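Message: Just now I want nothing more than another pair of eyes on a protein record. I am handing you a single protein, as its sequence and its fold in token form. As I understand it, each token names a local backbone shape. Take your time, and here it is.
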Amino acid sequence: ELFNIPSITEEEARIIAGKVEQRIQQMQLPFVSAPLIREIQNQVLLEKAKQDPRFAVYRNALTRVGVPMWDFSHIIGGNGYEAQENANMQPNPETIHKKVADRLCKEAYLLMLPPEIADAHLAGDIHIHDLEYFGTRPFCADYDARYFFKYGLMCDGLGERTAVAKPATYPTVAILHLIKVLAAGQTNSAGGQGLFNFNIFLAPYLQGKSAREIEQLAQTILFEANETYVSRGGQLVFSSIQLESGIPKIWRDAPVVYRGRVGPETYGDFEDEARTFMTALLLTYLEGDAWGKMFSFPKPEIRLRREYFAKSEHEENMYLAAKLSAKFGSSYFDNVIPGYRDSEGQDCYQCCAFRLEEDIGSEEFQRKIMFEDGAHFSMGGLQVVTLNLPRLAYIAKGNDDFLFEALRKQMAIAKRVLMIKRKFVKHQLESGLLPFLNQQPRSNGHKAPPLFDVLSASPIFGFVGINEMVQYHTGSQLHESQDALRFGLRVIAEMEYIRKMYSEESGLPFAVARTPAESCSTRLAIMDLLHYNGEAKSVVRGDISNWRQQLEEAGRTAVPAYYTNGFMVNYDSEISLAKKIAIEEKAFPLLSGGNIFHAFLGEASPDAESLAKLNQRIAMNTQLGYYSYTRDLSVCKLCHHTAGGLIETCPNCGHSDIDWFSRITGYYQNVSGWNAGKREELKRRYRVLTGAASPPADVYQLT
């Protein structure tokens, strides 16, 4: 049975077989093939589905999936299907193989979903992310390094096909183990991999180490992470590490876990080592690689706390984090100062902006802090389904009630997708097909708890285009009127209300989050141009003057159209940084699953000292919980000089063969690999602080 639909009866099967045989005889072909018979059979099933929907499901179950030779020939040439879908992927043999496999799997999973859900994705009502991995693995995972420091490393999760390592005794080995954790973890996940409390949990290994030794360890981390070119389809592992300049209160008295033992020391005993290690990491990020180029991964997630700005011992790290933003734009600031953030709790930002958290009030939380019987933190996302919000406005035609009714229907469909995903992943778990995530090494004769609690991962509702939704519905964009802004916040609040209701009904940690939308913001905009052209063409961003021809000739990644991401103002809105913050910060307390604020810096080299002061003002006086500064970069292919801004000629050697780098969503990558929608967005971004040696005057309104 598929989706509670009973199997076809023998009598029905005979009737269908008879019709197929009759049609084949009428065709009078010299020979027939199995694929031809299958196609005729599916045609008959579709005809019968008009009277009985069961037969549509039977047709899905019997449909052949694969890649036509014409399409295959384009893919192996580095073009065709989903070229430039993911800027982190370089055309290479593994990428080609992944693209072929992705296409087959996406077709198959859509056929395995109930037809009305598959239709919702195909028509652009929703977007199911990482569809190629839908039935096999969860989305993203953030790991507790203490697990490996206690139990050692099994990269295959079982120890049957890889060497089993004891817990690391030396810091270099501990670091190499964690790099392998990120690489092994991505084989069981569809999205990003992270390590929270990174420098805190490694700090005990650094006791007694010289500054030079700690510097070497920092270099080991960054070069290993950026040379481990083994992720899905031949790419770097999309990864992040959480950095703290001190030891948070909840961890001060927690026993250290390292070298296979727990305690007796506590993490509070190693605050100097943790801080020194963060300093070494930031200095290494600033130095760049042998060419002076930035390190793309792991993304440094810089935790911001009040004491880090108040105490002198943290001043250097806060300055270096800002300097890294000024030079490469690499830092991501995880601000726990706003009142809605639980500064004493444990959470992390993952992938491009998903916030995952644990309940500080539970007894289990304290067990995890103390690592009792191996209890540890396991934070991650199960699946992301993005809602196409502008379409709600097109349907509602200015009626608030119609819009919110459409929103409820859209979220109900997305919820069904998330619940089906959970069912699939539960089956994989019970079948032993997520061995790394579900590993349970033995220690002293006892099994450890599973590394990652897959079924507790958050099902996530994403969204794009809220700016275009309010523009079409109210006549104004988010930054153009208070009514538009209030309506946008009202929609977010309604999504959160529905999300909370779903969580209370099911006991599952549903979340609403800003979606990275590297490709789906363009895909959904194109789907609306196709199905709601009269409405969509008035609000879709980018250059849509020739969109249909571009779509027909080169596919959707060649169409320079897009929706604005998350709860963001239009990228080319010429408003001050203070006003942009005042608008976008209002969504942060409402979004349970995370959000991000982007400040796009001007092309002149920003002053690090000024940026550090600005950073403190933002952290202490706004509701921004997660933000970054994006500096565009140009890298000369001849002399490898890195310059600020998107320039045509190298200022060092005069060469014109230049690579441009910028932040595409939640990570930096070469602009040549971006899809046309994102390249168009890059052209239109309104940049602040251009040529300024200090923050503009209106920034001081933040105080």
Summary: The first strand starts at residue 126 and ends at 128.
